[in-house]
Specification:
Layout lengths: L2 E3 L8 E3 L6 H6 L1 H15 L14 E12 L5 E11 L5 E2 L2 E4 L3 E8 L6 E5 L8 E4 L11 E9 L4 E6 L2 E3 L6 H13 L9 E2 H5 L18 E2 L8 E2 L1 E8 L1 H9 L11 E7 L3 H4 L4 H15 L4
Length: about 300
């Protein structure tokens, strides 16, 4: 195990590494860079006299890297760390952190009358899409369906969790490109990135044009478990009107392959039932709520 000091910190912040992780690997890990920059900025806002913690400000004292998971070719995938954040009174903030970076969520509507299984998919990332038959009136919610996934989720103890499809950020660091790629791989639908509507950017207020010393620079995204993970999920919407016979062809592909060992399948769910069918999935609930709220306000 080795130790280095976090660059550009005063007083110095020691970082204790695991034997299999180098300083360069950690400092170049996008999730770590985003997390440490966000935390350091938020800590700096305590300098404002009006900040609730101004009289006894917290600061980052040290970071202990506890475990690392690598993806292919030695690329850092996940990092578990413990950050000591305390004030001079000895009061500490919870600092157990699981770093994995941002994901992508997609709301996609489809047309059908009840949940159906579609063709199986093997990619481990997911996106949610909305389709509607082109023979129903436009600007209505009639017969809209949402694509959900069913897949095993060992951390939740489930072998068939209904979810809004999501995926890790792509190598370019863009959400739109990554989401469009996931949709194409998992549904066969080719979706131009410029057709994706970022629900979270519409729903979550943008930082004020005149920055203040108390303003935190958080992601305009949903934090799925902010008490223990840095994961943030921008949620996208893609709506498409499709021919009814196309949907009927999809229905004709129903094979029940989950009974034959397929790990991941898709299902169609009526838009109005998403909150119930995928009620355990924070991504689905967030996307559904933002969609309903933005539509109610006339913004989409």
């Amino acid at each position: 195990m080795s130790t280095f000091h976090l660059p550009s910190t005063s007083p110095p912040v020691p970082v204790n590494l695991t034997a299999d992780l180098s300083q360069g690997q950690l400092l170049s890990f996008p999730a770590f860079k985003t997390w440490i920059n966000t935390l350091q900025h938020s800590l700096s806002t305590q300098r404002s006299k009006s900040h609730a913690f101004n009289s006894a400000p917290y600061r980052l004292r040290n970071i202990d890297i506890q475990a690392v998971d690598f993806f292919g070719e030695g690329r850092v995938g996940f990092v578990k760390l413990k950050a000591e954040v305390s004030n001079d009174k000895g009061e500490k903030l919870p600092g157990s952190v699981f770093l994995r970076g941002g994901s992508v969520g997609m709301l996609v509507e489809c047309a059908d009358s009840f949940p159906q299984l579609l063709k199986p998919v093997t990619n481990k990332h997911y996106s949610q899409l909305i389709l509607q038959p082109d023979d129903v009136p436009e600007d209505t919610e009639t017969e809209k369906q949402v694509i959900l996934t069913l897949q095993p989720r060992v951390p939740a103890g489930s072998l068939a969790m209904a979810e809004l499809p999501a995926g890790m950020l792509d190598d370019s660091g863009t959400f739109e490109g990554g989401a469009a790629k996931e949709i194409a791989e998992e549904t066969g639908l080719e979706i131009p990135p410029d057709e994706l509507l970022n629900l979270t950017e519409l729903a979550i207020s943008a930082p004020s044009s005149v920055s203040t010393s108390e303003e935190e620079h958080l992601q305009r995204a949903v934090y799925s478990s902010s008490g223990g993970s840095d994961e943030f999920i921008p949620l996208f919407l893609w709506q498409k009107r499709v021919k009814r016979d196309t949907l009927e062809q999809w229905q004709g592909k129903l094979t029940g392959l989950r009974d034959h060992g397929e790990k991941i399948t898709l299902m169609l769910c009526p838009l109005e039932k998403v909150w119930r069918v995928a009620g355990r999935d924070a991504k689905a609930l967030s996307a559904w709520a933002m969609y309903q709220g933005l539509r109610g306000d006339g913004e989409i």
